[in-house]
């Protein structure tokens, strides 16, 4: 059973899934007009970790994340650089995927692009006009938020108090400052698409509601994003679905932001100017570990000091992998399943970690438990209990692998068969079966390994 904090209810709730065993999730993606920043890295890491953990726990996950490839910022930059909107979007989408790849994030199952969905958006807007929840002004079509009875659900405030706090805008044709653009009428020199209500381009809030419903279907399970998207973006997505009579996301989850004070942002203090910049200066796993060590709903600080601290913790993990010759779990990150046969010494660890992660994705608790287990494995091996120590170390590695953090051990690639021989030899030595231990040593030597005995058990390396 997975429980998450649901922003629509303001409390941690069990995920009630549309189809048992399957989780459909939509994560709002970037508008591609600049390099990705640290905040992008954090929220995508969080939802990557959630997706991996759900998969590890045996759920089939359908993960959709969009690209907004047309908007005011893209148009503005294209004008400034004397190029096309298509070129700007292509350039920065490439930068985006390079950064996501650098962070070791699994690719979404679907990546809808806003410009591919304009016809469907036009259809939704036409329906909203027909139903009288949208109206037309000189610069485009707006959504009338007063038509949705529970508008303000995600903001956690009723419409009246949202209205009192809203800025007064220049557009006098808008009935309320909270009303939002569904469609922006075409302007000379800007990209536009045909529509029965006048050529133009879609508003941002309309993109996500159309794309998520198209790819995940009505009543999908989980809509995620950074905390700043809760209102107005997600509120407005939801309002359109409600007005169109489409059951929308069953659960809403939002992640905290990255804190960078004004002074801390300054380059002279050696801070990171973008995610791309951070990834060029550190092992990306350090950023993942830094993210894992904070609760996803809390803010984090990303500075050279917090990154350096994460790098030191990472070094301890890699040292464990070296000591116990642990195989990297890179290739099987998404395939590792929780029904993996946990030896008794590791079952308690798995259950404690699963208890933490299934309860509102408590990664700081899970990471603390894994570091305790790391110390325990080292202590066990120091006192000669090599077999159990290795099991525990493998479990630490497998569970970090389940969160997308791959430990790096020996520089030599240790194949599965050799790894199995090493383990059997340690078991034989543990049982004082010296003849069997010698036989297994010969088998390893025949496979081209140099074999050494250490406090951590059998060590192998290429001569
Ligand atoms: Zn969105």
> Which distinct ligands sit in these coordinates?
zinc ion
Question: What's the β-strand tally?
Answer: 14
What's the order of the H and E elements? EEEHEHHHEEHEEHEHEEHHEHHHHHHEE
Helix segment tally: 15
Spatial order of the strands in the main sheet? 4-3-9-10
Mean pLDDT: 90
Shape: elongated
Topology:
Blueprint: E1 3-6, E2 11-14, E3 22-27, H1 38-56, E4 60-65, H2 72-80, H3 85-102, H4 118-130, E5 134-137, E6 140-143, H5 159-165, E7 180-185, E8 200-202, H6 204-216, E9 222-226, H7 230-244, E10 251-255, E11 258-259, H8 275-281, H9 284-292, E12 300-301, H10 304-323, H11 344-358, H12 363-382, H13 386-402, H14 416-430, H15 434-446, E13 450-454, E14 457-461
Parallel strand pairs: 3-4, 3-9, 9-10, 11-12
Antiparallel strand pairs: 1-2, 5-6, 6-7, 7-8, 13-14
Helix pairs in contact: 1-9, 2-3, 6-7, 9-10, 11-12, 11-13, 12-13, 14-15
Bound molecules: zinc ion.
Zinc ion is lined by residues 28, 208, 233.
Annotation keywords:
single chain; 463 residues; 4-stranded parallel β-sheet
Structure description:
The protein is of the alpha/beta class and 463 residues long. Helices cover 45% and strands 13% of the residues. It is built from 15 helices and 14 strands. A four-stranded parallel beta sheet has the order 4-3-9-10, sandwiched between helices. It has a four-stranded antiparallel beta sheet with strand order 5-6-7-8. A two-stranded antiparallel sheet has the order 1-2. 44% of the residues are buried. Bound molecules: zinc ion. Zinc ion binds next to loops.
């Amino acid at each position: 059973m997975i429980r998450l904090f649901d922003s629509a209810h303001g409390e941690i709730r069990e995920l009630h899934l549309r189809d048992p065993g399957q989780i459909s999730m939509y994560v709002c993606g970037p508008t591609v007009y600049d390099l990705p920043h640290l905040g992008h890295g954090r929220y995508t890491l969080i939802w990557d970790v959630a997706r991996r953990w759900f998969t590890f726990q045996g759920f089939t996950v359908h993960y959709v994340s969009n690209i907004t490839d047309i908007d005011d910022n893209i148009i503005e930059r294209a004008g400034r650089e004397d190029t096309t909107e298509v070129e700007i979007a292509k350039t920065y989408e490439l930068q985006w995927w390079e950064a996501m790849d650098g962070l070791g994030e699994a690719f979404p199952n679907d990546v809808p692009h806003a410009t591919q969905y304009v016809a469907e958006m036009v259809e939704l807007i036409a329906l909203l006009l027909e139903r009288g929840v949208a109206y037309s002004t000189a610069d485009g079509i707006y959504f009338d938020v007063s038509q949705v009875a529970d508008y303000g659900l995600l903001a956690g405030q009723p419409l009246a108090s949202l209205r009192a706090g809203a800025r007064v805008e220049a557009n006098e044709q808008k009935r309320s400052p909270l009303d939002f653009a569904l469609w922006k009428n075409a302007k000379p020199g800007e990209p536009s698409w045909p529509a029965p209500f006048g050529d133009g381009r879609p508003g941002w809030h309309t993109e996500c509601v159309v794309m998520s419903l198209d790819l995940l279907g009505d009543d999908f399970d989980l809509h995620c994003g950074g905390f700043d998207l809760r209102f107005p973006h997600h509120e407005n997505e939801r309002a359109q679905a409600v007005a169109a009579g489409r059951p929308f996301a069953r659960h809403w989850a939002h992640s905290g932001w990255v804190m960078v004070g004004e002074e801390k942002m300054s380059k002279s203090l050696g801070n990171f100017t973008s995610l791309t910049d951070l990834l060029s200066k550190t092992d990306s796993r350090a950023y993942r570990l830094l993210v894992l060590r904070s609760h996803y709903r809390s803010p984090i600080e990303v500075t050279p000091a917090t990154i350096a601290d994460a790098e030191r913790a990472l070094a301890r993990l890699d040292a464990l992998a070296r000591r116990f010759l642990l195989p990297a779990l890179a290739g099987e990150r998404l395939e590792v399943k929780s029904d993996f046969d946990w030896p008794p010494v590791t079952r308690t660890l798995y259950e404690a970690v699963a208890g933490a992660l299934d309860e509102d994705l408590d990664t700081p608790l899970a990471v603390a438990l894994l570091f305790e287990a790391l110390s325990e494995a080292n202590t066990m091996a120091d006192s000669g209990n090599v077999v159990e120590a290795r099991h525990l170390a493998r479990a630490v590695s497998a569970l970090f692998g389940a969160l997308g953090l791959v430990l790096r051990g020996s520089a030599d690639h240790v194949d599965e068969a050799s790894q199995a021989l090493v383990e059997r030899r340690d078991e034989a030595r543990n049982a004082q079966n010296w003849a069997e231990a010698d036989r297994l040593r010969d088998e390893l030597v025949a496979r081209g390994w140099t074999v050494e005995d250490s406090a951590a058990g059998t060590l192998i390396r290429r001569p």
